[in-house]
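Exercise: predict the fold of this chain.
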Amino acid sequence: MLTSLSRCTRASRFIRPNRAILSVSGARLASARPLKALSNSQSTTSARPYHSSAVPNSEHAVRHIQTEKDKGSVLVLHTVYLSGLDAEADPYLVVSSGDWTYTSENYKDNPNPRWNCYYSFPFESVGKKIHVKVMEYNPILDIQEASFELDTDSLVSTVAPDIDAVRHGHFFIGPRKIDFFIDFKYQRWPDSFPTNNRLKIGNQGFRDSQLRRPEMFMRGVHFAISLQIEKWTPITCDSIPPPRLPKGQQAVTPELEDYFFVLKEDPDVPIPPEAGVLIHLLNQLPFNDENIFFQTIDEAIDYVHRVFGKIIIDPTEGKWSNLTDDDALSRFFFYNNGAIIMQRKPEGGYFVDLDWLFDFGMRDKYTRYGGAIHFDEAAKVTHIVYDGKTYHPPGPGEEHATWEWMKLVLRSSMFVAASGIHLMQGHLTWSNYPNYAMRTALSPEHPIRRLLHVHFWRSAMVCSKSLQSLIPEGGLLHRGTGFTKDGLWNFYKYALDTFKFETFPEELKRRGMDKAPLNVYPTAHDGMLFYDTIGKYVNDYIDLHYKSDDDCVEDAELVAFWDILSERLAQPSRTVPVEKSFPKLTLANLKTTLTEIIFRVTAWHQNVGNALAPINDPSCISLRLVKGQLIAPVQSVFVQGLVTMLTSMRMPTMAANGSWAQMFRGKAEMEVYNNFRDSLNGLSQHIIDANKTRKTNGHKIVDYDPRYTCVSVSS
């Protein structure tokens, strides 16, 4: 039955090794290491004791049902079992014969994988042998560990119709002995077998292979992020050390076209130089702009669960029952990251304006982002305006496809807009520049540095990774979105040019949302409670160290710190006129500014970056908008998942069990800190209680709950 075996001498998990081949007709070795002989394979017609799989009921699980042309005998592989692989093996199978090819599920760290596969091979259309390859998943290039062939003639001669049979034996990968068991069933389909049950998406083996990894770049990034997450051990705030490095000039990246720079070193988490080299090399890989489309939403959701299910956590607000209906638009734009740019209309109602995205260059095959979505006083969608045309929800009996498409365009545009604001304003402005100012101007024991230190934990490292992986040509967002190179850069510039230093209360008033009803726009209510909680904490702490404006301006380190903030936060892009001068250093302005900084890198950052829900349903968001496709292509889903992975690592939160009391000195400072922690816990309980009675269609509003708010921009 076994006629040949090939294997790979595994030199590394990252390099395709040399291959040795043994043929029964004559030994042909391409390696200095000799291959051990195969055992005599055995066969039996008794039922295999390991076999427990049943024929699936779903037509999507039954591969290649008979057609009129293929009536007759079919050989079915029910189960394949391997034993004795390396403990860290990530194996999968490629089984083929003639025109039929199947690719199995990939198991991670499984030395004894078992596949319940149900692969069928009609004899009228296959070759005389079935080829089985044992593959090892590799982020850059998968490795063929072993292969063998099964003689179909000998199988048919020894297996009666509808009776299970087992083939078992062993082979070697280097010195390691691998046992295998394969369970077959030889069947005859009746002439009346329905022909319309053939799997509609064609050759499922080829399909699985297509969906397995969209392109080498994404495979490499997925592998790198997965390793980082697997090695990451969540910590609490009490594990964060107090500031220790002296003040002084910081190493920064060159200023990118007079727009921004980031810190090159992070004292909390060293930035390994090889990480930047790897990201740079990945960005240079060929750009593949071909799309693979899912055939059904079930297939798309299954793909997300298989590729990202073990890594991406559930949304903090709980799972959404439906991400694409009209009611979900209210949740998406009023309660999630759409809330950051929601505006009140003077005549009543609300809207989100995304038309500014329309002008940025797109690659030819993709629909432009943009448009505006309008809601009534009760936060129900009334219409969408896109490219000068107005679209309304369809009534009974009216066509729905256009409306569903426009909703997808607006949801996707909002996701893209939030990504730009999140990166350019949240990371590279609010987090990056105060961190730079603090480390440049303030000594480790300076009271302001101790106050701020925990809120910039890991921030330099995160900003550095963002600069390397998200912004460059060939980076994650360039490949995942429909932007051209220039379109993506102009998008980033716009997000930075429109940054405006203002307090959260001033921003709410400018957008007309400061008086929005609680059940319509809970962001204003919860956000202001969080803002005021931080404000009292900062006010009480500053009063311990500064009694007047003179005390502030006489502190040379504080003046130097303030000068850097004045230069960078007034207008960070350097290429547009400063609309409003940064406030001068006074006691009141010091309190307000520090409150704003802490609020933006904690609660506001949580709100703008809340993107866990859309990854669960590929019909909710499509970063590559292809006209007529209501399900995001594989590449879009993959990049969206990668970005979500980057931002969903568990980090210390404001109301976690751990304390950052190690930052404070003396009884008075500790009293202020303990009062703040008590206030955070009280705020969290208030939001929990409020969610029980809010008329928000049962949706929990948690973006400003300190239990979920990270202490810093740390992921």
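Check your answer against the key: Residues 1-72, 157-163, 188-209 have pLDDT under 50 and may be disordered.
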